[in-house]
Amino acid sequence: MSTGPHRWGLSLRQAALTVGFAYLLDPVAYAEFRIYPKLVIHGNAEQTVANITAHHGQFLALFFIFFINFALDIVIAWGLYVLLAPVNRALALLASIFQWVYAAICFVGLFNLLPAYRMLTAPEYLADFGRGPLHAQANLLIHTFRYDYSMALVLFGIHLVLVGYLIFRSSYLPRWLGIVLVVDGAGWIINQLQPYLYPGVDVGFLFITFFGEIIFMLWLLIMGWRIKEPLIVAT
User: Fold this and answer.
1) Does residue 172 sit in helix, strand or coil?
2) What does the pLDDT read at residue 231?
3) I want to staple 178 with a disulfide (CB 3.0 to 4.6 A). Which of 23, 29, 150, 167 is the partner?
C-alpha cells in the first residue's frame, strides 16, 4: 500500500518537518529556566506569593507558554504517528496515545494556575480567606500543577522509548537516533520517579540525556526533507 500524502494527509517528509518545527517553536525552555525559577521558590510560600503579586504579568505568560507547549506536544504526537506508522502502526499509535495522555494530564494540572492567579490578584479573596490561608491555597494550586506535570513526564518518557524503538526498527531513519531517544526517554522516567522510589539517590547527571530531543529536532530539520517513502505500510 502506498504511503504517499493522500494516505495520511502528510508525506513522511512533511511529517518529519512538522515535528521538527513544532519542537523548534516550543517556548517551554524559557518558562522552565527563566520565568518559573524567578517566581516560584520551593519551600517558601510567602516569597512565591510576593513574586507572583509583583510580577503577575510574567505569571500569566508562564501559563500561556505552558499551554502552547502542551498544544505543540499534541501536534508532535500526530506528526510522529504519521512518520512512524509505516514501521508498526499499532506501536506508533500506542506511542502517540502516551503523548496525548501526558498532554491531557498536563492541561488539567495547568488550569490550577488560573485560580491561583485570580486569588492573588483579586482583593476580595484576601478578605474572604485571610492572608495565611490564601497564600497556602495559592501555593498548593501552583505546586499541584507541578506535581501533575512531573508525574505526567513519566508517560512522556515511555512515549520517547517507544518512538526510539520504532526509529531503530525503521529502514528510513538512522538507528543511532533511535538509541538516543530510548536513552532520553529512560532518563525522563528515572528522573521523575526519583522523589518517590529512590529519594536518596542523586540522578542529576541524567540531565544530559534530555539533549536527545534537541538532537532529534536538529536531525528532523536538517535531514527530514531527505526521508524516502517506504513502499509498504506496516499493519
Assistant:
1) coil
2) 63
3) 167
